[in-house]
Input
Amino acid sequence: MIAQLTLFTLKPDLSGERLEEMMMMTRSTLLKIPEILSLRTGKRIQPEDPWDWFVYIEAETLDKLAIAQDDPHYFKYLQEVIHPSVALQEVHVFEMDPRKDVKYS
Output
């Protein structure tokens, strides 16, 4: 099982309402992709944290994650949610199954 955690810093002029809208759009758009098994989003609660919000995605394998990222819904998500509002992002990908060799992920 693969987990992808993406951390985002938003553009300075973004409102709190826009962030709420982005979180809802993330859920409604990405959950249409069959390869995405689980999805979580969240916003920071401590103002001193450098990241404003995150998106967490689970997929069965790295190949399925790549298929999800090639889906038209994913491209729509990037164009409508990410590109207009995000200043910086950092992506981390993890293998979640214990004892599984990561080269077979």
